[in-house]
Amino acid sequence: MKIYEKAPAKINLLLDVLRKREDGFHEVEMVMTMVDLFDRLEMEELERDTIVISSQAGYIPLDEKNLAFQAARLIKERYRVPKGVYIHLDKKIPVAAGLAGGSSDAAATLRGLNRLWGLRIPLDELSRLGGELGSDVPFCVTGGTALATGRGELLQRIGNPPQCWVILAKPPINVSTADVYGRFRVNQLNTHPSLARMMAAIEGGSFTAMCDALGNVLESVTLSLYPEVRQLRSSMRQLGADGVLMSGSGPTVFGLVAKQAKAERIYNGLRGYCKEVYVVRMLT
Ligand SMILES: C[C@@](CO)(OP(=O)(O)O)[C@H](O)COP(=O)(O)OP(=O)(O)OC[C@H]1O[C@@H](n2ccc(N)nc2=O)[C@H](O)[C@@H]1O
Ligand SMILES: Nc1ncnc2c1ncn2[C@@H]1O[C@H](COP(=O)(O)OP(=O)(O)O)[C@@H](O)[C@H]1O
């Protein structure tokens, strides 16, 4: 039997870091949501007890370093499934972009294999299992819009953000999340974004208030390391985006606008010097 699973990209509408923990991770507060830019996974059961990954993308590992491989191995071992699986990843989400492409592939693998092997694992259990693979995986398992705390694995579902268009632009550099967190110093921050304002904006359905409440403290690291990200952020703003922010540890910058025509104008303006630009919507 063959099954298909979609793996959407995420953006962080708010990302605050509260402190560095003893285990090396950072305690965060994040408001995360999904957008309609997807990787597509095809999974087929194998009688042979092996995990095989393929992809049209030449720039990701296909061995045990692949997060989909790790997800398949984890669920197989934990639930003692004596079967194998072939997983094809049709990659559309840019890699190492701050859009959680790998984490979402891992999450889609957990959801897909739960179905393929008839395991009937409840979604919250699957989400907890995802936490063993990475901090963003639990959110990617459940999707929607959520407030994520802890190292990102503690989730509280919140309402949908006001509908709008999202322009994603990724400069041609790869950013390591570990490196960005490693360079981050919480005591060098002058301000923190207001979670209360973001929550009120979403609850009240106010697009303008949501744009005003956007904030990501990791910009302090990535923007100073990579001037091209800072430049892209300014261009997005100059071209008329109502809200602009870097997603996660970067380097993808997103712009929010209410009208499709404006999104298309910004897309055309950016395409001149940025190859990877997408116009998407938030998934509600
Ligand atoms: C920054 C964020 C925001 O959503 O996303 P991306 O930019 O990766 O998309 C996440 O916090 C990234 O989550 P994820 O990519 O799953 O990170 P992990 O694999 O768990 O961790 C990679 C490394 O980042 C650091 N890390 C991660 C999460 C966290 N709360 N504190 C940390 O210090 C650790 O050094 C860890 O070794
Ligand atoms: N299925 C996958 N898709 C993308 N990257 C993957 C995958 N599996 C492992 N990786 C590795 O994970 C790292 C982070 O990739 P990604 O999840 O796209 O980053 P980010 O969380 O910043 O968006 C990359 O170095 C990549 O080689």
UniProtKB/TrEMBL annotation:
EC number(s) recorded for this UniProt protein: 2.7.1.148
Positions contributing to ATP binding: 94-104
UniProt-listed Pfam families: GHMP_kinases_C (PF08544), GHMP_kinases_N (PF00288)
Keyword Nucleotide-binding among UniProt keywords: yes
Keywords: ATP-binding, Isoprene biosynthesis, Kinase, Nucleotide-binding, Transferase
Catalytic activity of the protein: 4-CDP-2-C-methyl-D-erythritol + ATP = 4-CDP-2-C-methyl-D-erythritol 2-phosphate + ADP + H(+)
Pathway annotation from the record: Isoprenoid biosynthesis; isopentenyl diphosphate biosynthesis via DXP pathway; isopentenyl diphosphate from 1-deoxy-D-xylulose 5-phosphate: step 3/6
Record's function text: Catalyzes the phosphorylation of the position 2 hydroxy group of 4-diphosphocytidyl-2C-methyl-D-erythritol.
Protein known as: 4-diphosphocytidyl-2-C-methyl-D-erythritol kinase
The species this protein was found in: Paenibacillus sabuli
Gene: ispE
